């Protein structure tokens, strides 16, 4: 049974969090809503991304902004949380009402992925217009539970996976893991699932962390247990939106510690410098991650959107 002091402390934390979140939202959402309603153009785009991953069974990846990453794992192509629209949010009267990208990307071409992984239903991770453009009868989509109906038609399969569940697709094993986050899209649909994914194939294991606060959910990856031990070749982890959303998004120091505990050889930081979701300055998450890594900063993959990272040469053999 909780003590009165503990209940009061928890209630005070919730009130303070709500107040900070309200102030944070008021600083950006009214202005963004006005721009969206006015149909303000994003202006001239700086780049059109068209990454070309090397063929073969090695490991390579290209960050496409926010949590979107195109990877080649064991000869198969995997695309995570594809969001290529200029603005994300609910669509009303033909306009998308929500935050606009800050990275001036004019478009993204990814070809035909073998697998698309959707971590949860938040608008900045599940963008229906982007998915509709990617629909292909040769592509399989993997989602958490109660998210399948949000995926546009036209894909080969849409598979819902419970945390702890495993699906085999395109020669890969994809295991769903429960991070520390939440899955509602419209506020009231809180029963929607949310997942991170462990992708295994070609002698590699990759973690796509989705959105998560600090958690020990990935620690088992470092040890010989649960059939997935031995660490990971690459951890794709979000490092932004922790201010004021620390209850749902890990800060860079927490991310680095999680990567250490899971035995990650390389870390690809995502979920930063794309949509202004948090109050932290744009360059702060990466700077803090590199500082936390210290002498191991070479394990942090620093790439611009569309740039291709290729794993060490021996991984291609």
Question: How would you characterize this protein structure?
Answer:
By secondary structure, this protein is an alpha/beta fold. The protein has helices at 4-38, 128-134, 252-262, 284-293; strands at residues 47-49, 59-63, 69-73, 76-80, 87-88, 91-92, 95-96, 99-100, 105-108, 115-117, 140-143, 157-160, 166-169, 172-177, 196-201, 204-208, 232-238, 264-270, 308-310. Strands 12-11-10-4-3-2-19 form a seven-stranded mixed beta sheet, with no helix packed on it. A six-stranded mixed beta sheet has the order 13-14-15-16-17-18, covered by helices on one side. A two-stranded parallel ribbon has the order 1-9. The protein is globular and about 55 Å long.
List the helices and strands and how they pair.
Blueprint: H1 4-38, E1 47-49, E2 59-63, E3 69-73, E4 76-80, E5 87-88, E6 91-92, E7 95-96, E8 99-100, E9 105-108, E10 115-117, H2 128-134, E11 140-143, E12 157-160, E13 166-169, E14 172-177, E15 196-201, E16 204-208, E17 232-238, H3 252-262, E18 264-270, H4 284-293, E19 308-310
Parallel strand pairs: 1-9, 4-10, 10-11, 11-12, 16-17, 17-18
Antiparallel strand pairs: 2-3, 2-19, 3-4, 5-8, 6-7, 13-14, 14-15, 15-16
The CATH topology name of the largest domain reads: Metallo-beta-lactamase, Chain A
Could you tell me the mean pLDDT? 88
CATH homologous superfamily designation of the largest domain: Ribonuclease Z/Hydroxyacylglutathione hydrolase-like
The tally of helices reads 4
End-to-end separation:
57 Å
């Amino acid at each position: 049974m909780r003590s009165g002091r503990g209940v009061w402390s928890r209630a005070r934390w919730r009130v303070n969090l709500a107040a900070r979140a309200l102030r944070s939202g008021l600083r950006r959402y009214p202005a963004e809503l006005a721009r969206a309603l006015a149909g303000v153009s994003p202006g001239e785009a700086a780049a059109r991304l068209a990454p070309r991953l090397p063929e073969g069974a090695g490991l390579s990846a290209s960050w496409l902004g926010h949590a979107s990453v195109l990877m080649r794992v064991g000869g198969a192509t995997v695309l995570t949380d594809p969001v290529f629209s200029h603005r994300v949010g609910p669509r009303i009267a033909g306009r998308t009402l929500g935050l606009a990208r800050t990275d001036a990307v004019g478009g993204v071409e990814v070809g035909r992925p073998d697998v698309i992984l959707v971590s949860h239903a938040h608008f900045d991770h599940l963008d229906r217009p982007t998915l509709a453009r990617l629909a292909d009868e040769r592509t399989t989509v993997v989602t958490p539970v109660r998210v399948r109906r949000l995926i546009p038609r036209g894909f080969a399969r849409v598979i819902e996976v419970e945390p702890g569940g495993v699906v085999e697709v395109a020669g890969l094993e994809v295991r769903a893991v429960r991070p520390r986050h939440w899955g509602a899209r419209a506020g009231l649909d809180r029963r929607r699932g949310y997942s991170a994914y462990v992708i295994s194939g070609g002698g590699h294991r990759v973690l796509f962390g989705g959105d998560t606060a600090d958690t020990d959910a990935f620690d088992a990856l470092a040890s010989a247990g649960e059939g997935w031990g031995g660490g990971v070749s690459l951890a794709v982890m979000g490092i932004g939106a922790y201010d004021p959303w620390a209850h749902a998004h890990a800060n860079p120091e927490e991310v680095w510690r999680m990567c250490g505990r899971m035995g990650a050889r390389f870390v690809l930081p995502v979920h930063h410098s794309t949509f202004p979701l948090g109050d932290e300055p744009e360059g702060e998450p990466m700077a803090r991650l590199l500082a936390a890594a210290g002498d191991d900063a070479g394990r942090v993959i620093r790439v611009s959107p569309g740039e291709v990272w290729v794993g060490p040469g021996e991984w291609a053999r």
